Q: What sequence folds into this?
């Protein structure tokens, strides 16, 4: 009964209205800004990874803000989430993840430029911004801003907490036989120690761990793909050819309709890039910058790195190694982290152990980033007085998440993300002219012309 309710809620939340808004606003900004996400991607990457002037005001450098956002974005969705997307939506789901990545890059740009423009200095002397402030200060719609903050708190317990703990526990249990509850308790303890350091601590941890774990994972993926070069063209063709036609998993044990492929691909693409959710904009608001457009470009590059690069590598590895469509020892289809582990284990002697370590690090940094997002939203709603209680609840949910059923966790996370996206996308639509006008006014300062 509960499964049925979650499935019903998922289909309602991820129905036509949300998908129309998500795709529509992405197409609008792509046209209005002349494909800025493609034209200015090199500039965005230079800003993100280049040296920054120390005189600019804010709490984090461009690099630290990007790594903090990527700490949340480069989570389990880029690893096991791709596997669950392929299982639920067929190989064509990846094509729709690519579509979401392209449109999502420009959406993240819009979210960030508004976040920096409308940010404030909070009671603790820190920069505070994000969709809740953009909506209230830019539109005066306090009710919609409150909805976004409330839904973000809910999502932080879902995809930003329970899902991460569940997948880390599942991976460690599968590879090393560690009891999920033990993993949950240990992870909760580390999270409790870390979240009291605030955004500066999270930024430093993210700047250290995110590049290391991302580079390690991509290196392993590249080594596997190098072993399977002849299969790559066929894998790419299967992804494109099944994008608009019903497909089935390679093992024949699951079917995927076109609606499933599109819905799953877009929802997973949103989760893996965070485009449309508005959460990355909260990290962007803390950036040291005098120019909102600069930080917006930096935030935009995160969508490319998360979905365009990480998810593509993961999907190709799953397909060319044959892990996608394989069965476990009980004759059941591999799914989630188990499928990703199987793919790396087939091709590399240390593959499965390496992926488990990467999953654990990804999960840990994602929970840290979402703890920060949640605190900023809670501070917006009730001030600082609710933060100690929420921290305790957040830590406890890590333990609960580690022993929760996988399918329930993913459905809950997708529902929470969809609810969070509604107020954010409504705000983006209403403030679309502000985004375009600010871009035309500010981007010449970066030596790249829009007009």
A:
């Amino acid at each position: 009964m509960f499964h049925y309710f979650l499935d019903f809620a998922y289909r309602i939340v991820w129905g036509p209205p949300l998908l129309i808004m998500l795709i529509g606003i992405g197409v609008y900004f792509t046209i209005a800004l002349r494909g800025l996400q493609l034209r200015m991607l090199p500039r965005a990457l230079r800003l993100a990874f280049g040296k920054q002037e120390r005189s600019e005001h804010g709490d984090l450098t461009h690099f630290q803000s990007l790594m903090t956002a990527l700490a949340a974005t480069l989570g389990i969705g880029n690893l096991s989430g791709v596997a669950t997307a392929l299982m639920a939506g067929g190989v064509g789901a990846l094509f729709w993840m690519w579509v979401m990545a392209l449109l999502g890059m420009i959406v993240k740009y819009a979210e960030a430029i508004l976040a920096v423009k409308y940010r404030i200095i909070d009671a603790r002397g820190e920069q505070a911004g994000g969709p809740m402030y953009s909506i209230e200060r830019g539109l005066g719609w306090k009710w919609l801003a409150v909805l976004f903050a409330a839904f973000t708190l809910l999502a932080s317990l879902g995809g930003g907490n329970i899902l991460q703990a569940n997948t880390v526990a599942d991976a460690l249990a599968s590879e090393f036989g560690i009891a999920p509850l033990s993993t949950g308790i240990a992870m909760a303890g580390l999270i409790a120690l870390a979240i009291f350091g605030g955004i500066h601590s999270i930024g430093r941890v993210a700047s250290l761990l995110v590049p290391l774990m991302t580079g390690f994972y991509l290196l392993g993926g590249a080594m596997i793909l190098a072993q399977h070069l002849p299969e790559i063209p066929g894998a790419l063709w299967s992804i494109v050819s099944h994008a608009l036609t019903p497909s089935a998993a390679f093992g024949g044990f699951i079917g995927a309709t076109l609606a499933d492929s599109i819905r799953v691909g877009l929802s997973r693409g949103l989760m893996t890039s965070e485009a449309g959710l508005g959460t990355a904009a909260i990290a962007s608001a803390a950036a040291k910058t005098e120019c909102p457009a600069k930080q917006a470009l930096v935030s935009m590059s995160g969508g490319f790195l998360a979905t365009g690069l990480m998810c593509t590598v993961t999907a190709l590895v799953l397909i060319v190694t044959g892990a996608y469509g394989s069965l476990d020892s009980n004759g059941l289809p591999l799914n989630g982290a188990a499928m990703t582990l199987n793919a790396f284990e087939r091709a590399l002697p240390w593959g499965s152990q390496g992926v488990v370590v990467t999953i654990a690090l990804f999960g840990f940094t994602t929970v840290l980033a979402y703890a920060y997002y949640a605190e900023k939203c809670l501070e917006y709603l009730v001030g600082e007085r609710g933060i100690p209680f929420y921290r305790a609840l957040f830590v406890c949910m890590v333990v609960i998440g580690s022993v929760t059923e996988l399918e329930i966790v993913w459905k809950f996370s997708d529902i929470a993300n969809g609810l969070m996206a509604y107020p954010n996308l409504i705000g983006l639509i209403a403030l679309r002219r502000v985004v375009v006008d600010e871009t035309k006014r500010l981007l010449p300062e970066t030596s790249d012309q829009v007009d």
Observations:
- The longest strand covers residues 120-121.
- The first helix runs from residue 2 to 13.
- The CA atoms of residues 90 and 256 lie 6 Å apart.
